[in-house]
Write a structure and sequence with these properties.
The complex is a heterodimer of chains A (144) and B (249). Chain A is of the alpha/beta class and 144 residues long. Chain A contains 6 helices and 5 strands; from the N terminus they run βαβαβαβαβαα. With 249 residues, chain B is mainly alpha-helical. The chains are: A alpha/beta (144), B mainly alpha (249).
Chain lengths: 144, 249
């Protein structure tokens, strides 16, 4: 079963390397970009199901990046991580529909959040038309 | 204000009295904190109380084997604006549990966001706090739609409220492009806000119809237009929350 493709965006090489190693079993392919502009190029030619992105980056920061992709109607789940004190930037990112947030440096819950993001990115189109009514009725019958 | 939390303990099924008492104590505490915020505004003391209540509710929902048998038949009869946050919190955690949310940071964001999701309503005229949204005039409804942003502004002053909870406050009425304040489409809505949105709608349905949670569940799920607005996996998790663990297939 497909796990989906992940895009990591961060200007710090060490962080990118560590994330790639930590998450290598969770995605089919992991793409890497060191700023928002590089990420946009990757999105043009590759199918990405979830993005994990730093907020503070040169050339194009995380907020500018999410604003740009949402304007281009790209609805991929986007997970941000950032250090303490960047609450304002996070709220700004949230306005454009961030999927979740993680705190640097420990990135607690990283694997769970990325798994949920990939699942959401893969399911985005496939569940739009399906009726879940019969599933609900089946479950309701199991209640005392 | 003479509002009072009146709890009718009518139930014909066997229930752990100790569990029921614990739930009622936390409902009463929520009532007291919300009332205090309404009269005196929010302060670090109230935020601490909210965190404390949320943690206790989490323990009951996630770790107590008698929780479901006590909760499903509970009957909270009172001013809806006081028991609504408590029921939204319990229901949010029931959904989160069935979706396997285990991370303490995530759970804390959910229970804080759920308990204070309507805090912005307290800054609106009193009349708007008692009229159901569907009975409001267009002017009243326009004002009502500002409450998520108002709540966000009120809560942003407190550093102990996580950013994730602030996001829940802002987006708890966003429903797949048809909600407010921004008519945000589904994939852009913060997942934890979607959970609280579903829990909030269920709690409102249960309390306005004066039903127990398990009585309300079938009627709520049968409302096609309502249910279509919510994430199917979250709706399934809501229903699964009412199935005894050993019976879940």
């Amino acid at each position: 079963m497909s796990q989906g493709n992940l895009l990591i965006i961060d200007d710090e090489v060490l962080i990118v390397t560590n994330l790639k190693i930590t998450l290598e079993d969770q995605a089919d392919k992991i793409f890497v970009a060191y700023n928002g502009l590089e990420a946009l190029e990757i999105l043009k030619t590759n199918e990405i199901h979830c993005i994990i992105c730093d907020i503070n980056m040169p050339k194009m920061n995380g907020v500018e990046f999410i604003k740009r992709i949402r304007e281009d109607k790209i609805d991929i789940p986007l997970i941000f991580y950032t250090g303490h004190g960047n609450q304002e930037l996070m709220m700004e990112a949230a306005k454009y529909g961030a999927f979740d947030f993680l705190d640097k440096p420990n990135l607690e819950g990283l694997e769970d959040v990325v798994a949920a993001g990939l699942k959401a990115g893969l399911n985005k189109e496939s569940t739009d038309e399906r009726s879940f009514e019969s599933d609900y009725q089946k479950l309701l019958k199991e209640i005392d | 204000m003479n509002a009072k939390l009146v709890v009718d303990e009518v139930s014909t099924s066997y229930v752990s009295d100790s569990m029921r008492s614990q739930l009622l104590i936390e409902a009463q505490r929520t009532f007291e904190v919300i009332k205090k915020i309404q009269t005196s505004g929010m302060s670090p003391t109230e935020v601490d109380s909210i965190c404390n209540i949320g943690e206790k509710v989490f323990e009951l929902v996630y770790k107590s084997k008698d929780f479901l048998s006590a909760w499903k038949d509970i009957f909270l009869v009172d001013q809806i604006e006081y028991s609504h946050p408590f029921m939204t919190c319990v229901t949010s955690l029931m959904i989160a549990r069935k979706m396997d949310y285990q991370n303490p940071r995530t759970i804390k964001a959910i229970y804080i966001g759920a308990l204070i999701h309507d805090i912005g309503m307290l800054s609106l005229p009193n009349e708007l706090q008692t009229i159901p949204p569907e009975e409001m005039t267009s002017e009243q409804f326009a004002l009502y739609k500002t409450h998520p942003k108002r709540g966000l502004d009120m809560a942003s002053d407190f550093g102990s409220i996580p950013a994730a909870s602030l996001q829940i406050l802002l987006q708890h009425h966003e429903c797949n492009g048809r909600g407010f304040p921004n008519a945000t489409s589904s994939v852009k809505i913060y997942p934890l806000a979607k959970i609280v949105c579903l829990a909030e709608r269920f709690a409102r349905y249960t309390l306005t119809k004066k039903l127990t949670p398990v009585e309300a569940l079938r009627g709520f799920v049968s409302q096609k237009m309502e249910i279509l607005q919510h994430d199917p996996e979250m709706v399934k998790a809501l229903i699964k929350g009412f199935i005894k663990e050993k019976d879940l297939k």
